[in-house]
User: What shape does this take?
Amino acid sequence: MHPMTHDVARVLISEGDVQRRVAELGAQLSADYQDSNPLLVCVLKGGYVFLADLTRALTIRHGVDFMAVSSYGNATESSGVVRILKDLDRDITGRHVLIVEDIIDTGRTITYLMDNLRVRQPASLRICTLLSKPSRREVDLDIDYIGFEIPNGFVIGYGLDYAENYRNLPFIGVLKPEVYS
Ligand code: IMP
Ligand code: MG
Assistant: This one.
């Protein structure tokens, strides 16, 4: 057993289910983006595990780039006020861009990112998120690719952290309440 699973109350999405869904998304994206050489933009830090598996599930030519953002807020809630810590290396004008996110909660972070990237005039701009919490949404949002819709509640693993821990867990889990206090 993974030592860090001591802090996990329950597994919400198993490693096998995550891997199967990522393979499906990879196949779907490979079909949808055939011959368009898309650029996958990974939102750090939470997106790095998903990106690493997703990119290897693609059978088409594509590029990857990274953005790091920090949203002001407390440990479990984002405020929607976003600061760019690391911007893309290259210009995306005329490029088919797919944002790869770990989770969309209120939708504020991704809305900021979409607005920021749209100004650079990509050929297309879509979102691929592993997780979505629709009941928490505060802004109107069209998400093109969703791995799993999950209920409200804080989750960790597969890139998602609580206070920078648990990103390495291979499943999506819910923490024991005592971990927060
Ligand atoms: P939003 O701006 O409310 O949509 O929040 C998006 C960001 O908040 C995500 O990219 C995560 O970094 C973080 N976040 C939201 N919900 C969770 C969660 O359940 N676990 C870990 N991080 C989360
Ligand atoms: Mg994130």
Residues 16-151 form a domain with the Rossmann fold fold (CATH 3.40.50.2020).
